[in-house]
Amino acid sequence: MLRFYTILLMVLVWGPVRLYAQEQKSLPQLADDAFARQEYAVAATLYSRLAERKGNKASLKLLGKTAQCYIEMARFTEAGYWYLQMLERPDCPAEIGLLYSEIQKNIEEYDTAKIYLGRYNGTGADSIMQWRNMMLAGCDSALLWKKDTLNLAVENIKELSSQGADWVSGMMKAGLLVVSNGYRKMALSTGAERNPATDPRVNQPFFKAYLFKQYTKGGIVNNVLEEVLPKVLGKVPYHVGPVCFNSREDTLYVTLNVWGKDMADRTKKGAVNGKRLMSLFWSVKKDSVWSPLEPVAALNLAGYFTGNATLSGDGNILYFVSDRPGGQGKTDLWYSEKQADGNWGPPANCGPVINTRFEEGFPTINEAGSLYFSSKGHPGMGGFDIFRTTGNRAEWSAPRNLHRPFNSGSDDLGFVIKSNQYEGYFSSNRRGGGGGDDIYHFMDTHISEKLENPKAGKPTQPDTAAVTPPVPTKTDSTIVNKLEKLYFLYDYNSAELLTASKDLLDRVAVVLQQHPEWKLMVRSYADSRGSDKYNIDLSALRSYAVIDYLVKKGVSAKRMYYENLGERVLVNPCGNGVPCDESQHRENRRSMLKILY
Asked: Distance (Å, rounded) from C-alpha 504 to C-alpha 490?
């Protein structure tokens, strides 16, 4: 797992390895050399072997380096094990308890985290104490947010979640922009790599940028994954991405490891002989030909990270991430304004309302005037949390945590909404995924309202004393007068709409088009087989299928509401452990529709 703050800072490069010299080195020397080169996978193996060999005599420094290696790879359970070994020592520094509590937040053990946070005693002005207080506030908030989750479900997109790390980068008209190190060996339309170049820090391929396209032909959904501009980006030797296009899609902004001779902190001796920082490059299409990559000279600053660009809706403001001087902390959000001559103006910091002394990154802009970003510096559930703020330049509203299901104890980032304004994606390395950062899909017919106000987007029941229902026409009389029959069933473990279901939805679509003031409630259910969570998610997919079908028939998504009820309301006694035949279980696998007018 390649963590954001690690990737942003550097890719280490070293000279030829002298095997005869390595053979003379001890195990501690080999481990320290690998750690200095940030080869965390190698160093973790060597340090673990050394710590196990020494047993109770292993030094705190050795245990700490072992834990840090696993932290850098986002393998929190292993890191927690080594921190716990340290905490059992009477001479363990008090700060280790804070690091262990952060691990407990990452795996959503908030009560345990609070215990260790409460054991740390420092002065109020101490920066470490301030960090402790922020984490404690995050634990309290997370416990409340777990009880008040937005009524929508997210699904892991299996075909996009590789064994490596996969990030959402943005949207194009043709589909979803993705950055991944797990697709390079796959047989894509743009080719496959048998032996891709590998980042030695984590023994994983370098990242590349991809485009995920979905289209329907003959009723069948086809998915296509291809490299982004392989003729332009294919020869870059190190990390590629994230990428961003302007609205006309004729200008590309891409974050790259600088190659060639442009290296920082080069030394003549030692295991490390330089850092390859990330910088912002661009390419412009003219007469269907993309220009060679060039650095965005006005924005890059020698010796510092610059990248992860996103553009405002009108294309006149470019937001990016940097750790340059003049910021609030480690990595901040910055902006630049387009000048009259088409060039970018001097960068300015987005200010202390959204930036903290910790990491901020992964900016995206969805609705006009709304900025989404991930942060470790605002109270959150753990790792990077996704936040939303409104404004521009250096004037912003207080960031609001998006809560569950978008945020978790792990790293959550890259939040985007499709142009239809009811579907979107984000990335997370939360538990239950494929092991690295996976890509998740969500759908909600009132997502904009819920993001602005979590209590919004719920339909109100009509006041029967004040509202007189319209007289049904001949076309819709069978639907309006017999609401109890507005339902259909599903096959086992499926959200696919059957022919009879589509016939009914076709009639519902006609009625809703004839009465544009009417709304629709969709309630979907599952049978009792499977876990409660699985059945809630399955009923959500059934609601998605209904809404998506009606949207394609011309019904606005904002006219539809839904509830995912899983197995909570069964129509017969076929609950957990009750013997029932298939026909009885099938009665519970249903979507029920109600027209609100």
From this structure: 14
User: Cα separation of 315 and 296, whole Å?
Assistant: 16
Q: Is the pLDDT of residue 18 over 50?
A: no
- In terms of Cα–Cα distance, which of 257, 65, 101 is closest to 179? 257
* pLDDT given at position 19: 36
Query: Looking at the predicted structure, is the pLDDT value of residue 95 above 50?
Result: yes
SS3 389: strand
- Its pTM stands at 0.81
Q: Where are the alpha helices (DSSP H) in 88-167?
A: 95-106, 110-118, 127-147
List the single range of 13-27, 420-434, 519-533, 560-574 with lowest mean pLDDT: 13-27
pLDDT exceeds cutoff 70 at 203 = yes
Predicted confidence at residue 190, as pLDDT, reads 67
Describe the strand order of the beta sheet including 175-180 as a list of residue ranges: 166-172, 175-180, 208-217, 220-227
Measured in Å, how far apart are the chain's first and last C-alpha atoms? 51
The span from the CA of 108 to the CA of 348, in Å, is: 36
Give the H or E element holding residue 413: strand 412-417
Closest CA to 587 of 517, 499, 526, 516: 526
Q: Pairing between strand 275-276 and 175-180?
A: unpaired
- The whole-angstrom separation of Cα 330 and Cα 511 is 56
Residue 5 reports pLDDT greater than 60 = no
- Vertex 15, ends 14 and 18: CA angle to 5°? 120
Q: What is the pLDDT of residue 407?
A: 94
- Cβ contact 375:360 at 8 Å: yes
Q: Would you state the structure tokens that stand for residue 516, as one six-digit string?
A: 């544009």
CB 310 within 8 A of CB 365: yes
Residue 222 in contact with residue 256, Cβ under 8 Å?
no
**At residue 467, does pLDDT exceed 60?**
no
- Beta strand 289-290 with 275-276: parallel, antiparallel or unpaired? unpaired
For residues 502 and 74, what is the distance between their CA atoms, to the nearest angstrom? 45
**CA distances (Å), 208 to each of 10, 26, 160, 321, 438, in order?**
16, 37, 14, 19, 15
Using left for φ > 0, alpha for ψ between -120 and 50, and beta otherwise, residue 124 falls in alpha
User: Which ranges of 16-91 does DSSP label H, i.e. alpha helix?
Assistant: 19-22, 27-36, 40-54, 60-72, 76-87
CB 445 within 8 A of CB 547: yes
Tell me what the mean pLDDT of segment 122-132 comes to.
Answer: 77
Using the predicted structure, report yes or no on whether residue 565 has a pLDDT greater than 70. Answer: yes
What is the C-alpha to C-alpha distance for residues 184 and 166, in angstroms, rounded to an integer? 12
User: Torsion angle of alpha carbons 525, 531, 533, 538, nearest 10°?
Assistant: -40
**Contact call for residues 175 and 123 (beta carbons, < 8 A):** no
- Spatial CA neighbour of 595 closest among 520, 524, 508: 520
Residue carrying structure tokens 């196990």? 52
In terms of residues, how long is the chain? Answer: 597
Kindly report the number of other CB atoms within 10 A of residue 469's CB atom.
11
What 8-state DSSP symbol labels residue 376? Answer: S
- Residues 6+ positions from 214 with CB-CB distance below 8 Å: 175, 221, 222, 223, 224
